[in-house]
Predict the structure.
Amino acid sequence: MSSGKEITYPNDVKYASTHEWVKLDSDTAIVGITDYAQDALGDIVFVELPEPGMEKKAGEAFGVVESVKAASDVFMPVGGSISATNDALRDAPETVNGDAFGAGWMLKLFPYNAADLEKLMDAATYKSKIDSGEIH
Amino acid sequence: MELKRTPLYDTHRALGAKMVEFSGWEMPVQYKGILDEHRAVRNAAGLFDIDHMGQVRVTGRDARAYLQNLLTANFADMEINTAKYAVMCYADGTCVDDTFVYRFADEWMVVVNAGNGAKDNAWMLAQAHAQTSRFDVSLQDVSAEFYMLAFQGPLAEQVLQQTKGLQESFDLADLKYHHAREFHIHDERGIIARTGYTGEDGFELFIPFSHGKHVWDAILDAGKDVGVQPIGLGARDSLRFEAKFALYGHEIDANTTPMEAALGWACDLDKNFIGRDVLLKQKLEGVKKKLVGFEMLERGIARNGYEIASNGKTVGYVTSGMPAPTLEKNIGLGYVPPELAKIGTGFDILIRGKATKARVVKTPFYANRARGK
């Protein structure tokens, strides 16, 4: 379930103001949505991801996450070539609610545009902007 | 615009609710999660703060005649202490709002949707004083007199009957579906009715206003060991959707008539009321669009406003759609031409531009356990 737990902000990922995260694994960038985002959306019932092989720029929509109530676009936190998507979310979209930073990952990018990383936030900055209401 | 809050606002926050804007009100959309809350109502019972809904008291010598003219349902033989669903139409047959009408010994009460309160009041006043139909009637917005809660689900009767402070107030065993009765808390008048909008057995309570929080807490306390939960607007929507109850702004609005919305059962065309001529014409000559239920045959969720297409041509639109929690299917409601309204007919829902197959199915999606009780 989405509520009743403290929202987590792990330090080993970078955050976009549109609530996606990026984690680096050698040459590959892994992308997902944040714990705050999954909690705000509520029960996730559908995740639509692009075909591997597509290239997208930072800020471009790459897919759609649907809760019971609504459909929301998700955006590339960094640009890159989509080398893999998380097929498990097709049958178990609720994984994003349960483990947003782990098993709920969405994309792997290889190569990715390292320069885009500089525009992203660290955990403390992201959290403070949410707490202050600057982003929501 | 400043959002309105019900007096239970802080209580909702303390219960972990996420608050959202709804029709000018800041209301809980969910507490634990929409799916969890939806199932709680289907399997146990759930408590809803619906104080954002409006209530208008209608009194006077011509109260009944006024309502007969204003609304689609027939109140001629309506018994005292009963409730009836009715639509309020414009002269062109489209919908001002949908309502529940209660008849009591000395007065009538019309319950209207939150977002439509001001518009409804203006319309109702205008009809009361129209030159052609001057009624001896008095309208009074009594929303501030009552705190409106809904308590819905198979365990609702049992829990409510055991709720502290209410046990002596009423005996629910002989309160029939769509019947209402008055009760008192410290000499203040309240009303309880076996009505609701979830497809489950259940009640709507009009509590003397200052006792709203007290009764809310007492019901949750009485039901805490049997799975009773507070329910937000998210599950309220998914519950009414499965039971195919219309929601203003979705299935009905100022562009749709009750005949198109499959609400003909709530319209008595043998009496005169505003909009009746158009509805009668539609009944005789047929409608141009018809509300149908459909299920998705391919992966995808239909949403309000998506286009419905047939052979590559747009033919209609989706009014509500979501994964139905009880059915575990992606289903929807929408308007299509009558020739596409037959059960089994296939068409496409345009989901982000992609034609996704769907077919017409029988409604309601979820059979109402309470109906006919």
